[in-house]
């Protein structure tokens, strides 16, 4: 975007953790790059009775590392206004409308409005309803809504939530955040897949044996025990992030690189997700929970001993499984995933494992693997087979590694910065469409149901390992094995 946006941004939940850690810094980065300049203001709302001065000081503090000078930080913060607000109180929306109109005139924002719901989802419906009934959403200028995850806890609650939002906003105006989709390397999957002949032509079931997605965390539930115990890994990581990533890996080439065509292909993948029989479901998806363990001499406690966690909890802190996509491109190719807390190492990786070639000169040949590193390092690597130096003809794997260097990583936009930028530009490519959410819940609900009835075991795993043995055995059933197996240091 060359021009700066004209917009009044209203943040619900302005005193919260997400607003402080992510939203203010991301808005500031957009300000520094000129995407926001004089024609913008932010209304922060939350229950606390803050003054404008106090709100400004909160904003200044949250961007202190990023600002070139205290004056720059102050100038940015002067665009922030605070409105104490209870989301259930109609009177408060009337005041909000007055402030909105007043700021629109002061900043000449052309009635463009962006609403960011950064609070618990149970409030989304009432906020959307009031925005319309109290005339804050008035059809003038652009009006866009950003909602945080989780989008429902099952198909029923997600549908209900969606219905409530749709009474005020059209699907094209709703941007459902999946912050992983703002990550640089996820976005570069398009470049890797479609701008390289060597990948584009082999990105199908004839050449790819399996795809492996790992979202590994070293940390446990920390202070989020209460929330996590109600949610679990499947809802927290698989329904959204894992399936979104899968859709980018599995989709067909869009007719053009417009948001409409990309979305069409992504939605198709969700609709083509294979819905296995109950028996298959039991075998294809496994769950685990961490027990205590030791890593680099440091002891981790068991999940059931974590604060705010039920000591008899059956919630999974690890989930693993195999998805299939019923498309001509990928029919029969497993998309394995695993995600968990208290694993050996933090890292989000994708491994695309190509088919094994026949042996040559009587030597076994390792399959080619394309690895995409999403976090904490960004980059990719490709393993190929070469000849070892020497008189003998000995084949050995070599890998081409590319890691985004630290300066480039430092300059790469924060996921929230990139995503807010996209919303300002009305680009919904990196957000979840309702059809995607709906299709993913339909399948996840079935797994969730089976697990809640304890129809399959809850496998234990030692903190500091890469999950229970069952996750390794799962791949064996498909003649595969996890490519990423970080060394365990006790
Ligand atoms: P938080 O609990 O820190 O903040 C919640 C905010 O909502 C506060 O500003 C609070 O004042 C406000 N609020 C609560 N009840 C209210 C009411 N009745 N009327 C008006 N305001 C009210 O939460 P958070 O961590 O900032 O998360 C916000 C959203 O973002 C949640 O949906 C969460 O799931 C999602 N999210 C957060 C993170 C994160 O890193 N914090 C990551 C991913 C998603």
From TrEMBL:
<comment type="pathway">
    <text>Carbohydrate degradation; pentose phosphate pathway; D-ribulose 5-phosphate from D-glucose 6-phosphate (oxidative stage): step 1/3.</text>
</comment>
<feature type="binding site">
    <location>
        <position position="346"/>
    </location>
    <ligand>
        <name>substrate</name>
    </ligand>
</feature>
<dbReference type="InterPro" id="IPR022674">
    <property type="entry name" value="G6P_DH_NAD-bd"/>
</dbReference>
<keyword id="KW-0560">Oxidoreductase</keyword>
<feature type="binding site">
    <location>
        <position position="149"/>
    </location>
    <ligand>
        <name>NADP(+)</name>
    </ligand>
</feature>
<feature type="binding site">
    <location>
        <position position="236"/>
    </location>
    <ligand>
        <name>substrate</name>
    </ligand>
</feature>
<dbReference type="GO" id="GO:0005829">
    <property type="term" value="C:cytosol"/>
</dbReference>
<protein>
    <recommendedName>
        <fullName>Glucose-6-phosphate 1-dehydrogenase</fullName>
        <ecNumber>1.1.1.49</ecNumber>
    </recommendedName>
</protein>
<feature type="binding site">
    <location>
        <position position="179"/>
    </location>
    <ligand>
        <name>substrate</name>
    </ligand>
</feature>
<comment type="similarity">
    <text>Belongs to the glucose-6-phosphate dehydrogenase family.</text>
</comment>
<dbReference type="Pfam" id="PF02781">
    <property type="entry name" value="G6PD_C"/>
</dbReference>
<dbReference type="GO" id="GO:0050661">
    <property type="term" value="F:NADP binding"/>
</dbReference>
<feature type="active site" description="Proton acceptor">
    <location>
        <position position="241"/>
    </location>
</feature>
<dbReference type="GO" id="GO:0006006">
    <property type="term" value="P:glucose metabolic process"/>
</dbReference>
<comment type="function">
    <text>Catalyzes the oxidation of glucose 6-phosphate to 6-phosphogluconolactone.</text>
</comment>
<feature type="binding site">
    <location>
        <begin position="86"/>
        <end position="87"/>
    </location>
    <ligand>
        <name>NADP(+)</name>
    </ligand>
</feature>
<dbReference type="InterPro" id="IPR001282">
    <property type="entry name" value="G6P_DH"/>
</dbReference>
<dbReference type="GO" id="GO:0009051">
    <property type="term" value="P:pentose-phosphate shunt, oxidative branch"/>
</dbReference>
<dbReference type="Pfam" id="PF00479">
    <property type="entry name" value="G6PD_N"/>
</dbReference>
<dbReference type="InterPro" id="IPR036291">
    <property type="entry name" value="NAD(P)-bd_dom_sf"/>
</dbReference>
<feature type="binding site">
    <location>
        <position position="341"/>
    </location>
    <ligand>
        <name>substrate</name>
    </ligand>
</feature>
<keyword id="KW-0119">Carbohydrate metabolism</keyword>
<keyword id="KW-0313">Glucose metabolism</keyword>
<feature type="binding site">
    <location>
        <position position="217"/>
    </location>
    <ligand>
        <name>substrate</name>
    </ligand>
</feature>
<feature type="domain" description="Glucose-6-phosphate dehydrogenase NAD-binding">
    <location>
        <begin position="11"/>
        <end position="187"/>
    </location>
</feature>
<feature type="binding site">
    <location>
        <position position="47"/>
    </location>
    <ligand>
        <name>NADP(+)</name>
    </ligand>
</feature>
<feature type="binding site">
    <location>
        <position position="183"/>
    </location>
    <ligand>
        <name>substrate</name>
    </ligand>
</feature>
<dbReference type="InterPro" id="IPR022675">
    <property type="entry name" value="G6P_DH_C"/>
</dbReference>
<dbReference type="InterPro" id="IPR019796">
    <property type="entry name" value="G6P_DH_AS"/>
</dbReference>
<feature type="domain" description="Glucose-6-phosphate dehydrogenase C-terminal">
    <location>
        <begin position="191"/>
        <end position="482"/>
    </location>
</feature>
<dbReference type="GO" id="GO:0004345">
    <property type="term" value="F:glucose-6-phosphate dehydrogenase activity"/>
</dbReference>
<keyword id="KW-0521">NADP</keyword>
């Amino acid at each position: 975007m060359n021009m700066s946006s004209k917009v009044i941004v209203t943040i619900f939940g302005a005193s919260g953790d997400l607003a402080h850690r992510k939203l203010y810094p991301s808005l500031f980065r957009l300000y520094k790059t000129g995407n926001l300049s004089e024609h913008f203001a932010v209304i922060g709302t939350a229950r606390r009775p803050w003054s404008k001065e106090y709100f400004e000081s909160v904003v200044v503090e949250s961007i202190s590392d990023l600002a070139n000078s205290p004056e720059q930080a102050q100038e940015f913060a002067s665009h922030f206004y605070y409105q104490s607000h209870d989301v259930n109180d109609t009177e408060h929306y009337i005041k909000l409308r007055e402030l909105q109109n007043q700021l629109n005139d002061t900043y000449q924002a052309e009635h463009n409005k962006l609403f960011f719901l950064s609070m618990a989802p149970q409030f989304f419906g009432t906020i959307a309803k009031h925005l319309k009934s109290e005339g804050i959403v008035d059809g003038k200028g652009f009006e866009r809504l950003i909602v945080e995850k989780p989008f429902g806890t099952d198909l029923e609650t997600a549908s209900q939530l969606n219905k409530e939002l749709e009474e005020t906003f059209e699907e094209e105006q709703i941007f459902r955040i999946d912050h992983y989709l703002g990550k640089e390397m996820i976005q570069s999957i398009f470049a890797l897949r479609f701008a390289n002949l060597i990948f584009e032509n082999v990105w199908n079931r004839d050449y790819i044996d399996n795809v492996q997605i790992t979202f590994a965390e070293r940390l446990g539930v920390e202070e989020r025990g209460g929330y996590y115990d109600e949610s679990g890994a499947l809802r927290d990581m698989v329904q959204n992030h894992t399936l979104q990533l899968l859709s980018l890996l599995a989709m067909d080439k869009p007719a053009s690189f417009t948001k409409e065509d990309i979305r069409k292909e992504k939605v198709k993948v969700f609709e083509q997700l294979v819905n296995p029989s109950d028996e298959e479901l039991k075998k294809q998806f496994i769950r685990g929970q961490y027990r205590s363990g030791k890593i680099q001499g440091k002891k981790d406690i068991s999940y059931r001993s974590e604060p705010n966690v039920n000591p008899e909890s059956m919630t999974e802190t690890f989930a693993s499984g195999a998805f299939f996509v019923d498309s001509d491109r990928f029919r029969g190719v497993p998309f394995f995933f695993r995600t968990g807390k208290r694993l050996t190492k933090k890292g989000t990786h994708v491994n695309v494992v190509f088919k094994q070639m026949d042996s040559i000169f009587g030597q076994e040949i390792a399959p080619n693997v394309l690895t995409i590193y999403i976090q904490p390092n960004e980059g990719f690597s490709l393993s190929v087979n070469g000849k070892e130096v020497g008189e003998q003809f000995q084949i050995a794997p070599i890998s081409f590694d590319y890691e985004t260097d630290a300066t480039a990583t430092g300059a790469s936009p924060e996921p929230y910065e990139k995503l807010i930028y996209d919303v300002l530009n009305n680009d919904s490519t990196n957000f979840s469409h309702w059809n995607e959410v709906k299709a993913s819940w339909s399948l996840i609900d079935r797994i969730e149901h089976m697990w809640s009835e304890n129809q399959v075991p809850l496998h234990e795993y030692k903190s500091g390992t890469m999950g229970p043995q069952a996750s390794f055995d799962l791949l064996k059933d498909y003649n595969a094995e996890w490519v990423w197996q970080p060394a365990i240091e006790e």
